[in-house]
Amino acid sequence: NAGVTQTPKFRILKIGQSMTLQCTQDMNHNYMYWYRQDPGMGLKLIYYSVGAGITDKGEVPNGYNVSRSTTEDFPLRLELAAPSQTSVYFCASSYPDSDLFYGYTFGSGTRLTVV
Amino acid sequence: GQQLNQSPQSMFIQEGEDVSMNCTSSSIFNTWLWYKQDPGEGPVLLIALYKAGELTSNGRLTAQFGITRKDSFLNISASIPSDVGIYFCAGLSSGANSKLTFGKGITLSVRP
Q1: Model pLDDT, residue A67
Q2: Which residues in chain A land under pLDDT 70?
Q3: Are B76 and B61 a contacting pair, CB within 8 Å?
Q4: Residues of A in contact with B44 (CB under 8 A)
Q5: pLDDT at B17
Q6: CA–CA distance, A43 with B81 (Å, rounded to integer)
Q7: Is a pLDDT exceeding 90 seen at residue B97?
Q8: Per the CB < 8 Å rule, is B104 touching A109?
């Protein structure tokens, strides 16, 4: 199994440009998440989804949008990139309905720089 | 909201030494998790704890779920250079739509 796959791994954007960060999981997990990680600040939740067609805001949703049309895919959209969105972005998935919660499975991240 | 406290932000140890990290909260959690993030990669689950007082080992790693359910500890014994990385604690409380709360992480450096 590939687990959680994120593309691209690196990207440089100019201010005002838009892009979509892709995330796909092949574990049939219901729940998916987008986090951003800034140095010394830990992981901050941007958006999450509990299933296809259902999304909700996390801690820092401003400037981002998501959609969840299938169980497997959870893309993150930046419409008007700003320097404050320079960060490393992680997608994760989980299956909270199991008897024991095994945590989130993370992708390897997308490093985004906005100049 | 819920917060998990990890300190210090960075730790520097000599290869072969043991190191202990703790994670504290003002809230009760029902599940505690410890993750490690290697440079340039996503976090990977090391140990999961499900019961207050539980002590679990994974090789040279040992973690404990605090009796009060408000803290957890991770010990690494006989450190090696590949232990370098960021160690995150995470807690899960009960309830529908409950999401993991993460600490800010501790960056561990190991001197050969």
Answers
A1: 96
A2: 1, 96-100
A3: yes
A4: 106
A5: 98
A6: 25
A7: no
A8: no
> What is the rounded distance in angstroms from the CA atom of residue B16 to the CA atom of residue A90?
32
pLDDT at A101: 74
From CA B45, how far away is CA B68, in angstroms rounded? 23
Q: What is the pLDDT of residue B7?
A: 87
Ranges of H-type helices in B4-103: none
Strands B31-37 and B85-92: antiparallel
Q: How many CA atoms lie within 13 A of A105 on its CB side?
A: 20
Contacts of B78 (CB under 8 A, 6+ apart): B16, B17, B18, B60
CA distances from B77 to A34, A95, B56 (A): 33, 32, 14
Is any Cβ of chain A less than 8 angstroms from the Cβ of B41?
A: yes
Distance, in Å, from the CA atom of B7 to the CA atom of B103, rounded to the nearest integer, reads 9
- Residues in A closer than 8 angstroms to B102, CB to CB, are 42-43
User: Residues A112, B23, A49, A91: is their CA dihedral positive or negative?
Assistant: positive
Asked whether B6 and B86 are in contact (CB, 8 A), the reply is no
Indicate the burial class of A4 (C-beta count within 10 angstroms; 0-12, 13-18, 19 or more): buried
Average pLDDT in the B8-24 region?
96
Q: What is the pLDDT of residues B39-57, one digit of tens each?
A: 999 999 999 999 999 999 9
Q: What is the pLDDT of residue A2?
A: 82
